[in-house]
Structures are given as structure tokens and as C-alpha cells.
Design brief:
single chain; alpha/beta; two-stranded antiparallel ribbon; globular; TagA_TarA; teichoic acid biosynthesis; transferase; N-acetylglucosaminyldiphosphoundecaprenol N-acetyl-beta-D-mannosaminyltransferase
């Protein structure tokens, strides 16, 4: 049985959220020095992968690529590949915080605006008191501040580096400094801090179950309509894309 579904050159492992979390739990427990990079792959990432050679290298070398986006799931099923479910950056982060509260994991958060970052930390402190927040920084830093942020992360050595600066900026940052960050696992989580802080309201569960979370977000943030135009383009291209052998796999 094929253990992954290939979508426009990217191999998505056929893993549930729980199975993905187990992999990350095992990585933390192994105490390896090499950074484990998790890419949450949505249609935008897949489309950028086609033309961004650096992003292609990043994804091919990633420890784990998850199917973050109902478009990925739908295309896989139409092509007979059957990815089991979405594994989004937001869902993964919330579950990691729940697990971290039991296992006393440490986190560093990079991303969102200053007010949202601070509010998110307050909420995490309240809901997950046994999680250690080693540090945080907003995502609107100047270029000349970047090295200092990297040095701070390195000195703190978190179990998880959570980067919420948007894709593919987060992926490029993690890859650029992967040998300097001194974190066990790094994950780009898009706008997850906006959701945890309450700045952006996540779709109700019924919308999520109906695979209409994208529509809910568009209603909440009409300015996203230009970004949403990529979805039909992705669907058409992905359905007729001729896949080749090879590609990324889970690296443990």
C-alpha cells in the first residue's frame, strides 16, 4: 500500500493528526541535535513549490509535510490517493500545547503583531500553565533584528519553535537558520496566533466538518479574496498534473 499521496510533486504522508503528533513526540524524546522541520502544506505552498526552487529544496528536505488545506485532501481523493484528513498548523499547535502541558515542553513563539503576540502568551499561560514559554517575538521585525532573534532562540534551546509569519516566509526562515536555531522541532503555523488570541475567529465546527472553513474566513476577512483565487487554479492544475517518482518522505 502506498503510504503517501503525491500532489504536484510533493509527497504527503497518509497520516492523521494523532499519528503526526506521535511522530513529533518521538522526535522530542530522541533528543537529536538536528532540527526537525515540519511544513504544513496548503494549496498556496504547493503552487509556490512549482516555481520557487529554494522552497522546493526546503520541502524536499523537511522532516514532515502535512496536508493543511481541504483542497489537498479533495485532490488526493479524486486521484485515488485517499489522504485521511487535514492536519493543519492551528490544530497541530493546539494539540502540542495540550501535550506540552502534560509533558512540560518548552516553546518559543515568533510571529503576529506585538499586541497579538502578548495576548497569545497570556492565553497560553492561563490555559496551559505547565507549558514553558522560553521566549517570543513579534513577526514584524526589521532585517537587522533577525540575527539577534536567531541568537536568542539558540541560547534558549526550545523543544518547539513556532513560526507564525506566514508562508513561505516561515519556511524560508526556518531553513535558513536550521543549523543555528538549537530547537528540536520548528513549525510554520500561518495565522494560528491570531486565532488563539481571538483576533481572528475560527470557523465553527460545523463549517469545518463541511469543509467550508475557507469560505468562513473569506466572509470574516473579505480582503483575502485575492488569495482565494489560487484555489481553483490549484485544483485544475493538480488534477491534471503528471506525477513523477521520488520526492520527500518522512525523515526521522
Amino acid at each position: 500500500m502506498n503510504q503517501s499521496a503525491k500532489i504536484m510533486g510533493i509527497s504527503f504522508p497518509k497520516l492523521t493528526l494523532n499519528e503526526s503528533l506521535q511522530i513529533l513526540n518521538d522526535v522530542v524524546n530522541r533528543n537529536k541535535s538536528e532540527l526537525f522541520h515540519v511544513v504544513t502544506g496548503n494549496p498556496e505552498i504547493v503552487m509556490s513549490y512549482q516555481s520557487d526552487q529554494q522552497l522546493r529544496k526546503i520541502i524536499d528536505e523537511a522532516g514532515l509535510v502535512t496536508a493543511d488545506g481541504i483542497g489537498i485532501i479533495m485532490v488526493s481523493r479524486i486521484k485515488g490517493e485517499q489522504l485521511p484528513e487535514r492536519v493543519t498548523g492551528c490544530d497541530m499547535l493546539i494539540r502540542l500545547l495540550e501535550m506540552g502541558n502534560l509533558k512540560k515542553w518548552s516553546f518559543y513563539f515568533l510571529g503576529a503583531d506585538e499586541q497579538t503576540s502578548l495576548k497569545t502568551m497570556d492565553i497560553i499561560h492561563s490555559k496551559y500553565p505547565k507549558v514553558t514559554i522560553l521566549g517570543r517575538h513579534h513577526g514584524f521585525y526589521r532585517d537587522e533584528e533577525e540575527q539577534r532573534i536567531v541568537e536568542e532562540i539558540h541560547s534558549l534551546g526550545p523543544d518547539f519553535l513556532i513560526v507564525a509569519t506566514g508562508a513561505p516566509k516561515a519556511e524560508h526562515f526556518i531553513y535558513k537558520y536550521k543549523n543555528k536555531l538549537n530547537a528540536k522541532i520548528a513549525i510554520g503555523v500561518g495565522g494560528s496566533l491570531d486565532i488563539i488570541s481571538g483576533k481572528v475567529k475560527r470557523a465553527p465546527l460545523i463549517w469545518q466538518k463541511l469543509n467550508l472553513e475557507w469560505l468562513y474566513r473569506l466572509i470574516q476577512q473579505p480582503s483575502r479574496w485575492r488569495r482565494q483565487l489560487i484555489l481553483p487554479k490549484f485544483a485544475l492544475k493538480a488534477l491534471f498534473y503528471k506525477e513523477k517518482n521520488g520526492g520527500n518522505t518522512i525523515k526521522q
